[in-house]
């Protein structure tokens, strides 16, 4: 058919092409426009990652894995066979359960789990991290991808997290800072032959941000309702400074096996991407704004990347071997390592101060929230907490934190293996140490043989009684 058509165009002339007259009339105007759009679309799609890596058996944690770029990354990692722990605000949500089920079905990967870690609350982050670290044998962790973020549109009043911090600062910066620093023991305990990669999503808006050491979290300064990107940008700038300092700390840590640091933390700027938060930001969270967004959609379609294109630099960060040879703390953009970064990110003194001040702020906020929680606790919650604590103390699979806990766990073990329920590390109720020495065993033997002798006497007496 195409051959016949081409032959007729060749022999009978171009007038056989359908709508040839219209093409002749409008073509000279339309063709340059179509070419420009095609070239523009090609240019704005950004760079494509060309690296590959087998992820079977690897374990990744991801925040923001339920939407936008994070959801696409989660899909890719699951397709490659990785085990995924998706950190979500809530796990008792039927939507989350369905999302995980669908992801498992689509990728034929059953190793996808959701864990509650609401970055809006430092307590929720601590609860998750404690649960993760409580495992007696350290769990495998090949990387953490920090994709969750909150971008508040214009003209929306200041919003706060559970701990009373401005929301963008709280979720984007403080939540991720807390999560990654709490996971430090888990990251450090990975075997030296494992590439451990942490990726933190950043944004070009960091160039609009600022760092005020006296007021890191925009608590004292007036919230810029008409320019919320200043706070969003500041949260991303702080993340950049934190990434550098955290990488430095990890590099300085001397492993017991003397192997070099196998953890790399990098920042990823995905570019401008069509995601739910971009849509909300452009439409300013209003119906009219949304309508305008839909009407002007071709513009956004042309200039903004799709989520698949936005995820490319994350893949580069996860797969490119060169990144494990670098010092970490790099800014990745368009599948490249950027050499030009904001001077604050490279300021060593600032890095230390930001890290220190944030740690202090978190301590203060956690204490405040604990007091608040205690005040608002019901009797039932107190009871539930006590029971959970007792269960944790008795669970022999969880590493004990105090000698008292160790004793409790040993007692549980003793009763499980049937050597009584002793009350201390050295002795059980029968006076038998948990780890007996030879003299103890000798005593035990003597005791049991004398017991046997008396038992024997008793039985012989019984026998002789019987004979009589
Ligand atoms: N889109 C862009 O143009 C662009 C540009 C530069 C940088 N970035 C960065 O790229 C990353 C991904 O952006 P995106 O546009 O794909 O985001 P998105 O579609 O808006 O998704 C945000 C994700 O963050 C999660 N999240 C929000 N608050 C949370 C909380 N309190 N606890 C736990 N999770 C929470 C959301 O979970 P729920 O599903 O529960 O809401 C959602 O999965 C962000 O870090 C963003 O700053 C994006």
From TrEMBL:
Residues 459-468 have a biased composition (Basic residues). This is Ketoreductase (KR) domain-containing protein. Belongs to the short-chain dehydrogenases/reductases (SDR) family. It comes from Candida theae. It comes from the Eukaryota. GO terms for molecular function: oxidoreductase activity. Residues 417-468 are annotated as: Disordered. The chain crosses the membrane at residues 281-302. Keywords: Membrane, Oxidoreductase, Transmembrane, Transmembrane helix.
